[in-house]
């Protein structure tokens, strides 16, 4: 994964899409599987709306949770000491 860019993300990354599925539960399960397949481990489903052939979903992959050791802070500190 693009670790260089992800280390500059302030907190989380959201992904929104429409998934073809037969129920809201299937849409939830597919969304979590998709995020894990993309390499994200800490994920939440933040929105789902089932309608017609599938579900509009928004998932959030946490790069940093509040209070974690942020890589972007370490990078800023290094740049300032130059």
Give a written overview of the molecule.
The longest helix is centred in the middle third of the chain and has 14 residues, at 24-37. This protein has one domain (9-74): Defensin A-like (2-Layer Sandwich), CATH 3.30.30. It has helices at residues 3-6, 24-37, 71-81; strands spanning 12-20, 43-51, 54-62. A three-stranded antiparallel beta sheet has the order 1-3-2, with helices on one face. The chain starts with a helix and ends with a helix. It is α+β, with helices and mostly antiparallel strands.
Name the descriptors.
82 residues, 3 strands, three-stranded antiparallel beta sheet, alpha+beta, Defensin A-like, 3 helices, elongated
Give a brief rundown of this model.
The chain is an alpha+beta fold. The protein contains three helices and three strands.
Catalogue the unreliable spans: none
Strand order of the largest sheet: 1-3-2
CATH class: Alpha Beta
Query: Beta fraction of the residues?
Result: 25-35%
The helix content is 25-40%
Radius of gyration from the alpha-carbon trace, in angstroms: 16 Å
Largest sheet report: 3 strands, antiparallel
């Amino acid at each position: 994964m693009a670790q260089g860019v992800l280390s500059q993300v302030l907190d989380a990354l959201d992904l929104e899409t429409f998934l073809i599925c037969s129920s809201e539960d299937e849409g939830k399960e597919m969304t979590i599987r998709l995020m894990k397949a993309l390499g994200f481990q800490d994920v939440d489903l933040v929105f789902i709306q089932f309608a017609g052939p599938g579900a509009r979903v928004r998932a959030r992959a946490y790069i940093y949770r509040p209070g974690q050791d942020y890589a972007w802070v370490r990078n800023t500190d290094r740049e300032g000491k130059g």
